[in-house]
Amino acid sequence: MNPEPKLSFPSLDGLPAEVRLPAPVDQREYLIGGEIRRWDGPSQEVLSPICRETPAGPVQHVIGSFPLFGEKETLAALDAAVAAYDNGRGAWPTMSVPARIAAMEGFVHRMIDRRAEIVLLLMWEIGKARSDSEKEFDRTVDYIRDTIDALKDLDRASSRFVIEQGIIAQIRRAPLGVVLSAGPFNYPLNETFTTLIPALIMGNTVVFKPPRLGVLLHRPLLEAFRDSFPPGVVNTVYGSGRQTMGPLMASGKINVLAFIGTSPAADALRKQHPQPHRLRCVLGLEAKNPAIILGDADLDLAVRECVMGALSFNGQRCTALKILFVHRPVANEFLDRLCRAVNSLKAGMPWDDGVGVTPLPEPGKPEKLRAMVDDAVRLGGRIVNDGGGASRGTFFLPAVVYPTSPDSRLYREEQFGPVVPVVPFEDIEDPIRYVAESNYGQQLSIFGSDPDAIAHLIDPLVNQVCRLNINSQCQRGPDKFPFTGRKDSAEGTLSVSDALRVFTIRTLVAAKANDINKRIITKTVRDHTSNFLSTDFIL
Predict the structure, then answer these.
(1) Tens digit of pLDDT for each residue in 255-301?
(2) Which residues pair with 355 in a beta bridge?
(3) In this predicted model, what pLDDT tens digit does every residue of 500-516 receive, in sequence order?
(4) What is the DSSP letter of 494?
(5) Which structural domains are found in the chain, ordered by start?
(6) In Å, how far from its chain's centre is CA 439?
(7) In angstroms, rounded to a whole number, what is the distance separating the alpha carbons of residues 526 and 264?
(8) Number of Cβ atoms within 10 Å of the Cβ of 194
(9) 131-147 in b/e burial notation, b at 16+ Cβ within 10 A?
């Protein structure tokens, strides 16, 4: 196969109008304390993974810029969030649940109006295929609506009084305070909002840092945040993590760290908080999710799921299948089918119909992947698919590496890109041992047909990972399912309902069941003088 035609970049003059950026997005706006302010300080240039051809080779398009905050501006955003929370006395944390729901419904309506603009920026900023960009936006809208429904259910269950041992109580969930929310580049809208939205709707105030790659696509939502929530409830910061997140954590005023990234970065942030026992962490971190292909697996099904699981959005997903263990008797046949399926993926621009491989947004990523593949080859592996690992500019064609040595980096490290390491095994204890000894424990997939064999694997493996997928790829959804991990892969559980709990704490009002207390409670509920102590039922 000659990969060169697949690795060329288009002329902007030939692009359809609907996928062109009308102009560079030079962001000068930021949101603090209910105001959209103008930034006149230094800015960071935004390079698209989409390149232009030059005589010297591919050069990334400059598609805009965003502010580079210093400590002063960062702490101003924090002060606004602290003031809006006001030690739990602010308008937002004391607001009734129906009123917070109404505010969130207003936000999602405004968000939908900016769909086309955000989808376009997803394509240009991180190279995500148009169909996947549209899915990310629509899934995020569905997530917000499902969160609203989950809060209604939670509030209905909390609207009743409990009487135990002569004490009347009402138990509800109360916000924790100021949340620092920072999401990842690979799902810069969806995964960011899976922490931001539940934190907000439960009454917390938020300092929101968009991911390093995927900043500009949040710009269209600044007005929606400003107009939907009270001043200071949502505040944005931009710039390097060292200049922004470090000072925020060191202030001691952050109550919840909601971070999706790497475990070293999360550890460094947590250590900067001066009162770590007061800090709650909600973390989505690395994973090295394996697939185990047994000798009796349906190979067509296994290959189809493994290709999607390993290479959707170029393998840039924490839930991606990042290493495949194949029973040696079927390894050759599996590899042959896998290589044909991988090589059938279409490489191109995000807006191309049916595209399966797109340019990579991370700086220097093709070189990093090449170093991992070279290390595996040096240790006895080889690239078994034609053209695998070919690169040009920000392109890197998927590489299937077999056999992958236990001594190689690909065996141990998360590649977070389009490289598929395959390991043959004779004894099922080998992949089981790999899972047990791994630093990560998010998910795994098992492919096979014998119910007894699979049942034998379930019990030991569910104590190592938090989701075991049978004859299907690893994935996050549906969003109503728990999403978490063991070891270095996560802290806290996210799902539509779990997230409402993780950003809150159970709080109750209690009183002895005597006449005066009954009178106080009855009058408070009847006159609707408290938003917490209430029996209102949300329909």
Answers:
(1) 999 999 999 999 999 999 999 999 999 999 999 999 999 999 999 99
(2) 346
(3) 999 999 999 999 999 99
(4) B
(5) 70-284 (3.40.605.10), 289-484 (3.40.309.10)
(6) 20
(7) 52
(8) 29
(9) ebbbebbebbbbbbebb
